[in-house]
C-alpha cells in the first residue's frame, strides 16, 4: 500500500485534485455506461435495434440514436435523465459523504451527469459548467466552497452536454481551449490528480489519457488511479503516464481516506494545513463541538464537548498521564475528586491544572483529537464536565405568577447517586439522592440533600425579581416545572419550608439579597445613577443601602435615634434653657457623599433638626479609661437629618 500512503500524505498537504468517473456513483444505483447503452437500445424500434447492435460504447450508440431522431437529442436526453434519477436519501450517499469529510479536497473534476455531489454537499459546493460561472465560483463569497467542474456538463445545461461521438470530437477540436479548461490546466499544473471511478476500458479515461494529456501537457506531478484488480501490464502502462496504481474501488478507498485523514485532522490543523472552521464542521457531523484558540499563527484545540448535548453516537476515550512527583495537598484533593467523578459518586465538573498533567491521549469515535504531538503538548487546564442522562428546556411556574421562568432541567444517574438540577440564569437548584444497594438489581435512597446556588444575575432588576420568586418557594408556596415541548411531563418541586431549619442561614442571606436588589432599584431612580450587578453584597453594603432607603422613604430625611455632641454651644444652650427639652437646627455647609458598589452618590448638605431635644450623658471606655460621652436624643423620636441639594 505504498502508493496509498503517498496519496494520503499528498491529500493531507492539500496537493490533490479529485477526478471522478461514473464508477464513483455506482454504489448509489446510478447506471453505468453499458446499462445506459441498453436503455437507449430498448427505446429503439426493432429495425433500429438491429442497426444499433453493431455499436457498444455509449458515445457510439448515442451518436447513432440521435441520427435516427433527425439529429435531435430530446429523446436521448429524456432516456438518460430518467435513468440517472435514483431514489436514494442523502444520508445513504456514504461515499460522497465520506469525501465531504475530507476538507483538503477542494477541487473535484467529473465526467458524470448525475447530481449526487450537489445533493451530498448542499450549499458547500459550487458547480462550474459554463465559462461565465468561473468568476462567481472563485469570488470571495464562495472562496470556502468546494469547486465541482462538470466537464461534460449536466441536464441543467443541456446545450453543453458531451455524450455522442460528435460531441467528443467537437470538444477536443475546440472546447478544450475554453476559459474553463484554462482554469483546470492552471489547477492541475500545481496538484496531483487522483482518478477514481474509472476503468481503463472506459472511453472517458482513454480520452483523458490520450487527448487531454496531449493538449494540457504531460502530468508534472505524480498522479494516482484507484481501480480494483488491474493486471500488471496495465499497471505498467499507467507508469508510463506517471500514474501510480492503487488496487481499491471508490467504495473502499474514499471511506478509508476519510478515516485516516480525520485521525490526523486536528494535528494538520495545528500545522496550518487545513482551516479550523472546516475541522469544526467535520466533527459536528460526529456530534462533537470543538473550539480552537490561536497561538502564534496556528490554531490549537482548546475544548471538546457534545454538540447540542446529544451523546447517542459519540464514543470518547481519554487517557491521562499525571506528573508522578506532584504530591501536594491540592493534587491529592483533585485526585480524590477525579476518583469520585469517574466512579459516579459525584457529578460536579472538575478542573485539573495543566501542571499536574504530563500527557493526554484522546479519541472520539476512533479518531485522534490530540491537537499537537505529545512531545510539544502543553495543557493549561483540563475541564471534565459530566453528561446528563436526561436534559430538556423547562418552564418553572411560581404560585400566582403567570409568566414562567426558563430553566434547563438535567438528571444524572449512577449506581451511587441520582442528581437532579434546575439551572436558571440566576440560580441553580440541586437535589441529590444518595443510593444504597440492597441486592444486584435494587437500591434504596439512603439520604437526600438540597443545594441552592445563587448566581450573578444579568442586572439588578433580574436579581430583585428572582429573589422574590425564590422566597415564595422558601415560604411554602407551590412551584411546578413543565417540560417546554411537552406539558404532559411536569412535577412539583418539594416543599422546602419544612427544611427551614437546615436552610436557615441560606434563607437569611437570600432575604438580604432580595432587600438589597429591591432597594438598589429605588436608589438608582432617586439618585439618577446606574449600578452594575455587584460581585458580592457585604453587611456594610446592607447598612448603606438601609440608610439610603430610609432617606428615599422619608423624602430626603434620615431619622436617627441619637446624635453624638461635641459642640459646646449646643450644650450651653441646653444648660441656659434649663428645661426638659429644647429645639435646635444645625445646617452643614458642605455636601455629603457616600460610595456604594463603586458609584459615588451625592446626598446633599445635611440639616439636623429636632423640636424636643434633650441631652444625655453616657459612659464609654476609651483606651481602658472610662469617659463621658454626650448625645442628643428626641423625646418624640423626631430627630432627623434632612439632606438639601445645592441650587
Automatic annotation (TrEMBL):
Short name of any one Pfam family annotated for the protein: SIR2_2
Protein name, UniProt field: SIR2 family protein
